[in-house]
Amino acid sequence: MNIGEAARRSGVSSKMIRHYESIGLLVSAQRSESGYRVYSEKDLHTLRFIATTRSLGFSLDEIQKLLSLWQDKNRSSADVKELVLNHIADLDQKIAELTSMRTTLQTLASACSGNARPDCPILSGISTHCANRP
Prior knowledge:
The longest helix is centred in the C-terminal third of the chain and has 35 residues, at 77-111. The mean pLDDT is 93. The chain has two domains: 1-58, Multidrug-efflux Transporter Regulator, Chain: A, Domain 2, CATH 1.10.1660; 76-134. The protein is mostly helical. It has six helices and two strands; from the N terminus they run ααββαααα.
């Protein structure tokens, strides 16, 4: 199948397919006699694997490791689990940071009457927060 069909069937844009090839996540596609990329069902499966791992928030480096483990039939499931547990720990940290940001913004928004007056507790709070940063 051509790149457009591979994109349609995998849910990965043609541009991203070319990018994944350029960085080595996807093996360079075979070429037709006229020079067009030709993708196999195996390539399609790899693209879907990449799309799924991206949707789970894995970085490109992590995806490369997961792909290597996925393709290695002699892999240790402990290696896969370790990578996933590390990713979960990163997600937990990001969730905590986002929760803290949300709480701060909710507190600031609650302090603001949202009227026509120029004084704004939100801007004052952000300014105070900035002054306390290193």
